[in-house]
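Quick one:
INPUT:
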């Protein structure tokens, strides 16, 4: 009886770890090219990976859950994809835009030479 209990616990652990993460592949890196049909990603190892995009591909921008923006060249991505023969097809593309708003610059005021600074 004890052996069956251990075996059952082991099987449940294997099943939860196998199904908990999904069956897809992940591509991480920086977008180097993108169009309506594919995205090319340069990985940290320096290789470029091409991933196909279709109408079912979902795009999710970091910190912008309702955004309809698409990634652009230079953006960091984590792509969840499935492999069919030799082709990777994206199911989800998580990205973080590299474009950041420029910080506001303080207004510079000109003073007459020799004038005391205003307080």
């Amino acid at each position: 009886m004890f052996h069956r209990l251990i075996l059952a616990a082991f099987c449940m652990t294997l099943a939860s770890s196998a199904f908990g993460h999904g069956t897809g592949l992940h591509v991480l890196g920086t977008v180097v090219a993108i169009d309506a049909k594919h995205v090319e990603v340069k990985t940290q190892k320096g290789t470029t990976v091409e991933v196909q995009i279709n109408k079912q591909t979902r795009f999710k921008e970091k910190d912008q859950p309702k955004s309809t923006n698409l990634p652009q060249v230079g953006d960091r991505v984590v792509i969840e994809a499935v492999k069919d023969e030799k082709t990777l097809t994206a199911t989800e593309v998580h990205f973080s835009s590299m474009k950041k708003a420029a910080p506001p610059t303080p207004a510079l005021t000109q003073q007459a030479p020799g004038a005391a600074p205003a307080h």
